[in-house]
Amino acid sequence: MSVSEFDLIRRYFTRATGARADVLLGIGDDCALLNPPSDRCLAVSMDTLVEGRHFLTGTDPVSLGHKALAVNLSDLAAMGAEPAWATLALTLPEPNTAWLQAFMEGFSALAAEYGVQLVGGDTTRGPLSITVQVHGFVEPASALRRSGGKPGDRLFVSGRVGDAGLALQRARGPSIPVDLRLQERLDRPAPRVALGRLLAGRASAAIDISDGLVSDLGHVCTASHVGARVELGCLPVSPAVAAECGLGNWWYVLAGGDDYELLFTAEPAQVEDVLGRCREAGHQVQDIGCLVADSGITLVYPDGRESKETPSGFDHFRN
Fold this sequence. Notes:
The protein is of the alpha+beta class. The chain is built from ten helices and 13 strands. It has two domains: 134 residues, CATH 3.30.1330.10; 154 residues, Phosphoribosyl-aminoimidazole Synthetase, Chain A, domain 2, CATH 3.90.650.
């Protein structure tokens, strides 16, 4: 029995997430009607995941549903925004209801965790592609930006870096099994929404690490008209990634991407307050360097060697 587009919408999307009071009209009409608060800005972000480009063929659909929303929530976190609404556009080779049910299970579980309501979207036939747009709220004066860094600001990163890049590299090769903890970091990243909210109005600049630490730090440096020094020995890494670094392979931590951690800066006078609040809230953050007046990024290796040679991060049209 064939399944229509409207059958899919009714069965899998209309009630996929909890209802919010600020959604006046959700899925089922030509547009959603939404009521944003008058005292906060609307933060909007959108990402597309394409099979074979952003995820491997055969990726677990539950994990894929989680990740499709998580990478967008990470963008809201980088702005210090509180998540609210999402739209979802799916291009499917065929109406595989088992796959779609599993995908929406992962998507809906994460949406429930962050109070996100799915309010619209689109479905069509074609190569597997997933586009999610998220909307959130942030106080105008507190929104985090890439452009607020100044020379002397300390540089911090949350969580660990390099796990997802190492997991992806091993998944593509037949010889080394992928550690389940690494695979979890690749397939089900945890958006640092609570940390972003804590940093709003306190950090001087912020970005989420999606394309690699060096690449995303470069965006902050460009926007803030500064350079940076990164102490590689201070980078927070797992034992598996530390073993690679010990062999001289720093690519995973510097350019592997898919970490979805927050990279942020704080003025020296704010560091003690920011770190104290992070500790009280249980957020793992690590001081990894500072911003400087000179342009470019300097990597300081554990043996004291310095280098301005940095690996390139992910670029859709170069990689």
